[in-house]
Amino acid sequence: MIKDNRIKEVQIIPLEVKSSNWDQSTVLIKVYDEEGRCGIGESDGPTEAIKAYLEMKTAHGWQKNINEILKGRDPIEFVTNYNAMYNSQIWVGRRGLGLMAISGVDMALYDLAGKQYKVPAYKLLGGAQKERAIPYATLYPSIDVNSQNDVLLEEYKRLIDKAKELKFRAVKFAIMPNEYMNDRELVKFIYKLREILGEDIEMGVDFLYRWNDLYDALRVLNRLEDCQLFFAEAVLQHDNLEGHKMLVDKVSTRICGAEMASSRWELKDWIQKTKVAIVQPDVNRCGGLTELRKIAEYADMYGIQIAPHGWKTGISASAGVHFNFAVTNSEYFEYLHPDLYDSSLRRNLLVKEPQLVDGIFNKPQEPGLGITINDELVESLL
Ligand code: MG
């Protein structure tokens, strides 16, 4: 039995930074036990809204303050705690913001329980199913989305060189729809990216919801057959589950999606109705590691992989590493490397985290998520 292991306090700390490229701000979640140990997690979403949501005044049994829900509970009872959070906020937070908020708290509980029992988080998720975890690097250009094609290509080339230097085994090109690139040019552009990347690195493309019309998407995917894509992501609009099903039936490339879906209930719909090859619920938005674990097991029964979306700071990146170790049906997972995306919080929020070595992760040895926060930086942002 661990001494004074009960939850004493949950702190919600929005960290705001200016960014011209996507939103780099985050919500740091700290969960303290009676002994003073601290678990760290992170929620991705509108920072002030997540803080306000978790700190809301208790109105009734279905709309409760997070500290009132968790105070005195045992952090290692992950499913009990998840159910308590979900059921005590179900009046306001069954989906969307509510699940984003819970995700960060749930993540922090794995870090805290890991520190209490001195075991890495992947063991708390059921144990390692593999000897090494293989991430894919998302190559997302940090320049104006409406740049000319040759300027864009140069930026991707810079990112490819860096990914090769880091020995990534797989990459994903995030290609924003832009006014200079029609579908015909897009096909040529992707073949050029394959040529620069070479044949030895797996290649995915995130189309970032480019098409409304299934047949426009089909025309491009068919012409990309020789490009040997590992997957095609966000091809159609997120909620168009029927369209995804038709796409899956008509192309040989793995179709993936569901990065915006939260909870096992929404993922059940995705899995049953679309049969996409890979689902991508987010480690810091879908409900947390506890919910992600259930989603992975459900997907596995349909022969579907899970490759969690992971985009923010090293906290979520580390959670993604532990999660990948703990599941069988996840060949690759998204990993945001600090050298590949220009974000001060991604670079500096942690002073210690699991390290990529030659494009892979070995089993983390440190307790919890194996991370240490840069307290000075947090202090400076308050
Ligand atoms: Mg995406």
Task: Tell me what you see in this structure.
It is a single chain. This protein is α/β, with parallel strands linked by helices. The chain contains 15 helices and 15 strands. It has helices spanning 47-54, 66-70, 78-87, 90-93, 97-117, 121-124, 149-165, 183-197, 214-223, 241-250, 263-274, 289-300, 314-326, 344-348, 375-381, and strands at 7-15, 26-33, 38-43, 132-133, 135-139, 170-174, 202-206, 231-233, 255-257, 278-279, 305-306, 333-335, 350-352, 361-362, 372-373. Strands 11-10-9-8-7-6-5-12 form an eight-stranded parallel sheet. α1 (47-54) packs across α5 (97-117). The longest helix is centred in the first third of the chain and has 21 residues, at 97-117. It is globular and about 60 Å long. The relative contact order is 0.15. The mean pLDDT is 96. Magnesium ion is lined by residues 206, 233-234, 259.
Question: Would you kindly provide a brief summary of this structure?
Answer:
The chain has helices at residues 47-54, 66-70, 78-87, 90-93, 97-117, 121-124, 149-165, 183-197, 214-223, 241-250, 263-274, 289-300, 314-326, 344-348, 375-381; strands at 7-15, 26-33, 38-43, 132-133, 135-139, 170-174, 202-206, 231-233, 255-257, 278-279, 305-306, 333-335, 350-352, 361-362, 372-373. By secondary structure, the protein is α/β, with parallel strands linked by helices.
